[in-house]
Amino acid sequence: MSEKPLSGWAVILGASSGFGAATSLALAEAGMDIFGVHLDRAATMPNAKRIQDEIQGHGRRAEFFNINAADPDRRRSAVEQMEKILDEAGEPGNVKLLLHSLAFGTLKPLVGMTRMDSVTADQMNMTLNVMAHSLVYWVQELIWHGLMNEGSRIFAMTSSGSDRVMPSYGAVSAAKAALESHIRQLTLELRPLGICANAIRAGVTDTPALRKIPGHERAIDRALQSNPGGRLTLPEDVAKAIVRLSMPGTEWMTGNVIGVDGGEEIVA
Fold first, then answer.
1. Domain membership flag for residue 268
2. Is residue 266 in a domain?
3. pLDDT tens-digit profile of 35-90?
């Protein structure tokens, strides 16, 4: 068996679908064990179990946590369990990658025709907490518990919505802009520790999260017409890029928003 290019553990937030699932599988195939964090009810649990089974099929370990990743108590407990698992395996501090791929937010106009049609303060705060601020809080816990160290990588899934507008996308757009800002600040603060952080801006990708956005059909049609590659971005495209960006020799690439979109962003 040939030597795998990667090793250590990856923490994947949003591991049971979309970018998180594809990246979990790609990293496992490349040699990493997976801590998967996801939030699934009974109807969607079979898919989470399938991802676990496929990771194990690559000969890697898969420890999954079915929790709300934005809940501070659940987050702290999960990281403590991760620390215990690593210690018992004789691998203390061996989290080499964190992927933030959480897509749960309010899709309402900032200012609708009535109060009921408009985003509320609670909805705005929830959206930014889940889709942006939770990245910071997960990094804090992993650092405080000594699980990330020199050579570790942080990736966060952003989108062109960070600087573009769509109907009913205001709260999510604000979250993506905040997420990119957090990546820049984490780069400044963590680079002395040898940890790098980048945002990944995928092109339009047909995921369950996209299909919840009002008007997503227009976004798909526009991308199919304008993308130089002639197709939509696939979760696997992003997963392959993250694997490559996690290999030795890319440590000096940090603080960026990296497009994985087949050239979609550059087309007017």
1. no
2. no
3. 999 999 998 999 999 999 999 999 999 999 999 999 999 999 999 999 999 999 99
Lay out the sheet containing 9-13: strands in order across. 62-66, 33-38, 9-13, 95-100, 153-158, 196-202, 257-260
- Please report whether residue 94 resides in a domain: yes
**pLDDT tens, residue by residue, 221-257:** 888 999 999 999 999 999 999 999 999 999 999 999 9
Contact call for residues 226 and 265 (beta carbons, < 8 A) = no
pTM: 0.95
Which amino acid, one-letter code, is at 228? P
Q: What is the CATH number of the domain that holds 155?
A: 3.40.50.720
- What mean pLDDT, rounded, does the chain reach? 95
Banded model confidence at residue 1, pLDDT cuts 50, 70, 90: very low
Rounded CA-CA distance 49/64 in Å is 9
Q: Is residue 110 part of a domain?
A: yes
